[in-house]
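Purpose: get a first structural picture of the assembly so the mutagenesis plan has something to point at.
Setup: two entries, given in the order below. No constraints added.
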Amino acid sequence: MNYVDIIATSTALGLIVLAGGAYGVLYAVGMTQSSRSLERASYACYAAQLLLVLAVCLASPLDVPWKLFIAVSGMTYGFIPPATWRLLEKLHHDGVR
Amino acid sequence: MYRSQKLALRYFAAAIALFGVMTAAGLLSAYYYIDASLLYNVFDFHMAKILHINTLVIWLLMGFIGAVYWFLPKELGREVVGIWLAELLFYVFCVAVAIVAVVFIFVQYGRADQFSMWFINQGRKYVEAPRWAAAGIVVVVLTFVYNVTATAWQARKMTGLLGVLILDLVPLSVLYLDAFPQITNMSHDLYWWWWLVHMWVEATWEVLIGCLMAWSLMELMGTSRRIVESWLYIEVMLVLGTGILGLGHHYFWIGTPQYWLTIGGFFSALEPLPLLGMVVHAVYDAGAHHMKTSNRPAFYWVLAEAFGNFIGAGVWGFMMTLPQINMYSHGTQWTVSHGHFAFWGAYGCGVIAIMYLVLQQTRGAAEHFDSRAWKWSFGLLNLGLVGMVGGLLVAGITQAIYERAQGGSTLQAFVVASESHWFHSGMYARLFFGMVFAIGYLVLVYDLLAIGRRAAAAAPARMAPA
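Result (structure tokens, whole complex):
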């Protein structure tokens, strides 16, 4: 790996997680405030995350198994905020009952 | 107030004092990068670093122990069994820490023999405390485990939260025994040493802070026990599922078999996923209560814990955890940047949040527990930390490029990287923001001493009976 690859790949990897975090936060805030625009912004963050995943898969010098792994984990991020939210609502609903 | 809770306050006071020593030693360590001749042959960089890291471990450990001694009698509705022993050992612990610090500062190291190992410096990174002190830590931790389990036994009561805590205390105490072996093969030694360092930080401590945050959320937000316990089980499962074999990312370059590259990279890359769930949970709880709470300092420190953990451990960790990147970043200031951010986010913020929660109750300031100082300390500490982390990241990437990728990890390449203006800029930024952090610490100490006292004086009737 040359130094451009190191910086580009590690930055992209960090941004993938950061975009996932932004997706989760905006999704949760959007749901809390019943804001469609925040929810849409959260999906935009997730789309950005998927683009970063695509960029890493196509352009980085990582080995193929790691690229596959990143692609799968990128897709997994998509489910976490909605699934966590549903679980929390269920827990709170049951807890209140 | 239970005697156990009074003991908790003493533990918190000791923890905050050690937090100060850690900060001072950290500033000193940062300054050596600007002026390497500082205190040359009097108190060198490695001793400042030892003091910095060992006090980090001890202040957090004292914070955790104090928090458990605070919550335990409330959980079980009775005094902690063997509290006299815990009180005695608290003083023994403090005296031992002071003696070790004095030895580290004035004696530093001795000849490579058994005497040095037992009485001066054990020489193993992060667990440098001489063997007598390490044995003392074992006694303190075992007493702590006895206090918790015997109290639950005597109370004939077991909650889900307490069950998780007790189960966690077993590996927490057993793993510390890894501080003792004398293995001459360095690969073997590091292999087992990482069991202690990683399994404490990324497994048993994660579960411990999870239990403490669960108790805190119940008191801070009034969240029901069923909710926090259900969530705790899920978090523990996910954190341990990814964290235990995430150990492998420490095995990349220490002479272990190559399959650790795959195992370590895979599991540590999964580690951000449960952290994302925690962030969503934090936002959910904050939103469910419309950001309203009677204890804003604790609330904001809990939020900082969730976000700091995610960014420090998750984002910073994933930047450098895959083997192909880690080959260049491992052991550089890049790692230091990740370590600072993750420790602060995962543990430092959590312990401070619990301190504010406890102070609100001890000072009887049920409704007006607020101040300007806590906002300043919150801002300065977090700004200082983020600035330090940024400076270290710049310096670390410089090392990864000049020393590793271009220079091939030679001594000459190390010198070239160390003389790069990027490296120097990063280190100056780290020192500057370290000072910002130190000011934030001083404001925090002031606030911890002052907050809530005026409200308590104004409303003595609200004080709960002792």
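The radius of gyration of chain B is 22 Å.
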